[in-house]
Amino acid sequence: MSEIAPACRNPDCEVAKTGKCALGHELLDSCEEYGAEEVDFDLGDDDVSADLDGLDDLDRMAEPTRLRSSDLLKPEQLWPLQKAVPTRTIALVGDFRAGKTTLISALYASFRKGPVAGYKFRSSRTLTAFARRHHDALLRSNREAPVTLRTSRQEGLGFFHLCLRDAVGADHNLLIADRSGETYADARSDTSLIGKLTELASADRVCFLLDSARLVDIEERHHYKRAFKQQIYAFLDNGALSPSTALEMVTTKLDKLTPQIEGRALIDELTEFEAATLAEFSHVSLTARQVCALPRADYAVGIVGLDEMLQGWLAPRAREYPRLTAAQGPVRQLDRIFECWSEV
Fold it and tell me: Rounded to two decimals, what is the model's pTM?
């Protein structure tokens, strides 16, 4: 027994010799101390009812509790949630350091303080992932300035989950896709990679993040403007976006726009580019909004636009269904059966 039994974290337990738990657990797997280092917690998405069939009440009570990892949801883990409740999926598209992770962390931080835009936090399957992203923006991280670590290319595609409750008691499940900015940049220059961005086809809303810091940089703003529009064109021209998908241009880092450059306020540079972009993509009903999720250049700007952004994400949308028309002069005899019935 001592050769094959896993170790117990309780030094007073002799389960390796006697096979009996010092805490009185009949099933060793139900003890939190037994084999603690080797436990592989299930995500909790499996149907465990079949595993419990045939057990008496005492055995059912002794069954170990299944815990979720609370980390990012992978694409293959979405189906159990989507088949259980209606979901709204948001895809954030932006280059490296455009502010995707900061935006997600700011939403999490806002709900830690209370309701946001009339919605209360109810639950989340990705609390650990939220906490990891938000940690470096906290004082306890011992950083000199608040930051949020960027999403790595190696992490692939993941989804954050929020279940929010509105004022009338209805629940709204929000999924936010998270992918590295380098991957989107690669797909912009090599359109053969766009087909691998599966989050775009399933998204109810795609938000193109416009980085204010790069927009107002004299050395790279002209290149960045072209690259930003090229990203939208690349997705539209290669069929990556559904016609029913809402498209949104989200300008981040508004605290970078307070100084002046070339004799005018930087906000004017942003306003002019936003207007030109909306006009250029008027055929796809592109909308625009501005946010500041983590002010660092100018703390007086504060948190801006998160309430309005969340309301836009969860606002009900009118769905368009194809209009069915009767066939004129049907050729198949099967289609004419209704004419025969009407003559009887």
Answer: 0.69
